[in-house]
Amino acid sequence: MIFGMKTNTYCMLIHLSQLLSFSGLGVIVPIVLWAIQKDNEPLVDRHGKIVLNWMISMIIYLAVSAVLIVILVGFVALVILGVLAIVFPIIGGVKANSGIEWQYPLSIKFFNVV
Fold first, then answer.
1. Domain interval for residue 81
2. Mean pLDDT of 29-58
3. Per the domain annotation, does 2 fall within a domain?
């Protein structure tokens, strides 16, 4: 139990907190949630690393898409990334609440999830 909630629920919040990115908190909140409990709960550490891998990957994909706007391909890539930025955290959150660790497709593995 973490702050009175099941560990799976807390992991779900780490995934879903990425949806706050439209308010600017989508990068900060998942990192803070992960950092608070990563040393106490191995499951939280693994889910936090999954989310961090995805967030770093998205930053890279967004930078590449921004460069590709010059040849108009970047606009399509930005739309696709926008959809993925909503869909993947929802899928990850639902699976985390069910006790499943789901690696986001297209996510570059910067942190090893054991």
1. 7-97
2. 95
3. no
Mean pLDDT of the chain: 93
First to last CA, the chain: 21
Please give the tally of structural domains in the chain. 1
Q: Tell me what the mean pLDDT of segment 70-89 comes to.
A: 92
**HEC readout, 61-96:** HHHHHHHHHHHCHHHHHHHHHHHHHHHHHHHHHHHH
**Is 48 within 8 Å of 38 (Cβ atoms)?**
yes
Query: Is there a contact between 41 and 7 (Cβ–Cβ < 8 Å)?
Result: yes
**Distance separating alpha carbons of residues 107 and 73, to the nearest angstrom:** 21
The whole-model pTM stands at 0.90
